[in-house]
## 1
Amino acid sequence: MSKFHGRLLTASLAFLGLSACGDVSPPDVAQHSTRQDELVADAVPLPLPAGCLLTSLDTDRDGICDIVEAVLGTDPNKADTDGDRLSDYVETFGFGGLDLSALGANARKKDVFVEVDYYPNLRPSQAVLDKVVTAFASAPVSNPDGTTGITLHLVVDQQIAAADADMNLSPVWTDFDVIKAKYFAAARAPYFHYMVFANQYDGGFSSGISRGIPAHDFVVTVAVFNGTEQQAAGTLMHELGHNLGLRHGGNDDNNYKPNYLSIMNYEYQFYGFELNNKVGSLDYSRVQVAAVNEAAVNDLTAFAPVAPTTEQDLGKIYGLRFNGAQVAMFSATDFVDFNNNRQYDFNPYALDFNRNGVATDVFPVSQNDWAALVYDGGGQIGFAAPGMSRSLGREETFLVAPEKMEPCLAVNPDRAP
């Protein structure tokens, strides 16, 4: 338990006239697999927090008695008050030797933890990390503490030794697991995603790959084509998006979907948007945009919002891109020069947005990504939470299995943007 929470509980419980008891050291839990961890969580009782008795009422069975939850401001009827798949107990008191609260976790505001390891000379700059952290902090996501945004903890941990830095991870996850087993602490596994800034995988020139959708692990490999900081930041957020349940079309696999204004769309992965007068800003889709028909593109009607998205929401998004080029600098609610011919065409025309050789595709309504994030890491995140369901109602753990994941945005190193 952090010193802050200790002082808070001591002061509050003294006021309430409660005695602190049940201060037991956490058990030394060996963690070898998610399923084993889940069974251990059910089998090993959590140490009682100060202020709780064995007989104290714990409605949600999260290990924190209701009277202490009242002090903390967490929901006694929910083991995970903020819905980030990290239980109130572990975000407040830690477990298994890991103190998430000391790392900044807040049981009343969504947190996402990622351990970042890197090959020699590939340590991400603070500017790269800040771009992604800022994007999450600016997310239109409400929290029980009254704030908005998600706290993204990109914990840069350690450099992979040169002897272990396989320059071509192939097969990617077989070789990745060798690194993960040596460098990723087992105590973090139920709470952290794990990523590595590596050189290359499977002999290609892909920018990165996620271990399924949603998932626990991902790799960023922009180094293979000497990627820029902007490309590194965009790819980090893109692959993390896959870990959080997003596909290349949001809730579908329609890549280059023109009405999908998200870093998950290849059009924006390396470039971002212009938001709040900042070029290169990263964002998942925060709007829902009406369907677009390739056979009847209209510059004058452009994009239409789908409730609850408004025209005002669309008017905040600039830097639109189609078919590999940024079009005239107007917002998503203005006239849009879709074919980038430097004029607004008065008549509808056909345009092959997704580059599949035909201009007859219809792209369905795009989703608000921020409202659709999946925090359970493909079933691997969410430990030490008795009574908290690990299921999100899916029949399968993955929306896209690891073996079905295609390499993300590949670049010819001789023509890197």
## 2
Amino acid sequence: MKALQYTSFGGQVEVVDLPRPVPGPGEAVIAVAASGLCRSDWHAWAGHDDSVHVPQVPGHECAGLVAAVGPGVECWREGDRVTAPFVHGCGTCAWCRAGQAQVCPHQTQPGFTDPGTHAQFVTVRAADTNLVGLPDTVSFAAAASLGCRFATAHRALTQRAHLARGEWVVVVGAGGVGLSAVMIAAALGAQPVVVDRSADALALAGRLGAQVLVEAGPGALEEILQVTGGAHVALDAVGSADTAALAILSLRRQGRHVQVGLVTEDPPLPLSRVIGWELSILGSHGMAAVDYPALFALIDQGLDPALLVTRVVGRQEAARLMQEPSGALGPGIVVLDPGQG
């Protein structure tokens, strides 16, 4: 099969020929129809995650068809349309049995611990736990954005922050997960405020439902507080000391902050404010397969992930883009079609 692969951190990403995977017990092999290019892939390639070993096939968001199943798989058959979250739970621990596979202590992640989805085929372990049936109304390209960015934003806002209709939510960073958060917040009837340094990203956020657009810079916090009086919820989709602090300081008393942007080192936080104002600081790490029906329900009600897909590229272009800073992808989500050269 054709796949993207790098053999050293920060090194060349190449299109190579690799053996097609064969499913073991409990596993399924997916013929990948679409795979999202995500900032997390760049972090892995750059060597920021010690769970990654080389050589590695990147990619952790995919949708496609079940190509083969191993012994013991009961819920899936060849030809089923499927997607999967980027965290694959073991399927047997207490966390997985409770529907919390996203924090499984034995989790694996394609593109990080295991070969990833930027390939013609990928293996999903514990398929009965981790695969998600894909409705015919959701295209493969749109579904490729669900496994990481939409799923992460959905769980962060609904199950971690418990965002309610009419509440102000500040989203720092208008990349894939930030724009997904804007769309989900708008669909839930909340009032999204978006902060970013890119005029193009802010414009796209406005088209997707953001009510207030704030250019990142020295006056951003004052502008947010002036409009909202302090947000009920804040979400940092970037992952830096400055963006996390901005998100937290934008909250009103007893507000809720959710950190989803990956950090390369733990940043200092304004803990005096956290204590004095009784702020809640929450982490959010993807979403388990069992939680997808609520996201699909929003899609049935009009949420359209396809609006975020700005480009579909082939293998060679994806290999080039993998080595570029995340901003080089531009606003929206870029998707790899592994069947294209």
## 3
Amino acid sequence: MKTIRGTEFKEELLQRSDSSQLDLEFDRNVLSIIEIVRLEGDRAVLDFTERFDGVKLDNLMVSEEEIQEAEQAVSEEFYHALRSAKQRITSYHEAQKEQSWFLNPNESIVLGQKVTPIDSVGIYVPGGKAAYPSTVLMNALPAKIAGVGLISMVTPPQRDGTINPHVLVAAKEAGVDRIYKVGGAQAIAALAYGTETIDKVVKITGPGNAYVARAKKWVFGDVAIDMIAGPSEICVVADDNTNPIYAAADLLSQAEHDERAAAVCVTTSEVFASKLVAEIERQLAQLDRQEIATQSIEQFGRIILVDTLQEAFELVNRLAPEHLQLMIDNPMEHLASIRNAGAIFLGEHSPEALGDYMAGPNHTLPTSGTAAFSSPLGVYDFMKKSSVIYYSESALAEVADDIIILAESEQLTGHANSIKVRKAGY
């Protein structure tokens, strides 16, 4: 893991978006998949599933019998952990739910904002070789709390045509209404435009590979999306008293995600930096996903030496990392210095993995510097707002002349006339 000075750091390190996103041929392939699904519906989805996943399906929808079989296949220990996570995630997200509100400047005027859940959402959960029940909870529970009418879930089937039982059980526990055995760009297209089996939704959320991310970008506008998530990233801020064993473990917890994941440590201590390098090498040798993590650390891992904590915070705010761990003395005292981060973990006993599974806040976070202007997934992503305006006749009369002047200054005489015809009757 390379060690550099803060003055040598370049933000380009975290610009790790897949090069295929700039590949016109890649885009043409994704757009072709989307268009074929729009035209051919279920038949196209089934064909693409056989081609890309190697699975020939007779039915896209998961049956109730399959869910019941999944419930019998998972352990009691898994149920306990899942329900514990569900309770914490639910409790946290219930606090995010917004209410409609109204103002009465006087008895003749009512102004307000009506908060309404969106009608439907499609949740993408990566699958196939891996299983992510935590992703199910993090996407479905906020939608359920918001009051979304229909929650659909898509996830790639395993080689035998089934869905991982842990994912199915998580979907049942979280209140998902419909589950479909489909992944990739074809799943995004099916959710965006509908097929004979898969209902069109108004918003799509959830992470996926480059095909999924690009498909989400191309259907945006026809439907809403949560975000375009890039490779994972973590930034640890450390001082003389930081435990290098903990810091190394947390950096590697993100490095094992993807060869393009970024693990960065910003520290004021050269002694700590030396210990961290040795500890990362030691723990890397013991990691199951050693090959992936090694590539991540070599390409995008950095230890950045700075002179002061204030300099460290300034660098963090430039990075706007997905995950930020303040593993320093009295971290709460420095929280106000952080402006840009997806999730902030305070102290050495608040590892990133805690946020991934059990703490309660959402683990779907902005990446690649987008935490500078966006937020974690939340209940607010599944609700929309409508302005409410009521004026009595006398209240409109008081502002009629000003409206006419403003409308005519924009040469919108039709707007002005809509006021004039009412004024004529006063």
## 4
Amino acid sequence: MSNQNSTPSSVHLITSAEQLDNLFDAVGAASIKKEVPYIHAHYRAMIEASPFAVLATRGPDGLDASPRGDAPGFIVVEDEKTLLLPERRGNNRIDSLRNILFDSQVGLLFLIPGIGETLRVNGSASISVEPALLERFAVDGKAPKCVLRIAVDTVYFQCARAIIRSQLWQRAASEAPVPLPSPGTILAALSNAEVGGDKYDSDLPARQRATLY
């Protein structure tokens, strides 16, 4: 028997800003005052402590959210209006970079292990291959392919509720990894065994270590 409630009724859809505003309480002063158009010294400290960020972009084929990570401070605060993000080795899809060529607007979400608050940065990015800049970000003699220069528009910290509800850092510290399909298993299933499989999984750790930079 079909579920008559599976299709949402238009009566229950929010379709206007007025409806949305009526759904929520007024914004508190702290939520407004925490947003600034530059990198405050306290926000700089959070960026320099973060080993992981999510980069959001938009392109002709839709949206993209891509993980970025390295030693804490890998995204450099050049000045209070500029961030520098080296493009390290990945899968060569370069979805984020293609999107930036289409629409320079980007968003960054910084996470800091053990800290509930996250940091959000919105701005616009350009892609640089300036030799001196690439060399500045070289690791073990290996320079990134390019560096994103991000002009900052807004910066603010996000409260810890999502991290608290998810128990993200407590789970990471105390629980065994969740048993999930391996990359090789996923690839084999999606490609009808053209790629992936047990050998992919067994070779993956060494390949990742050899291609970090």
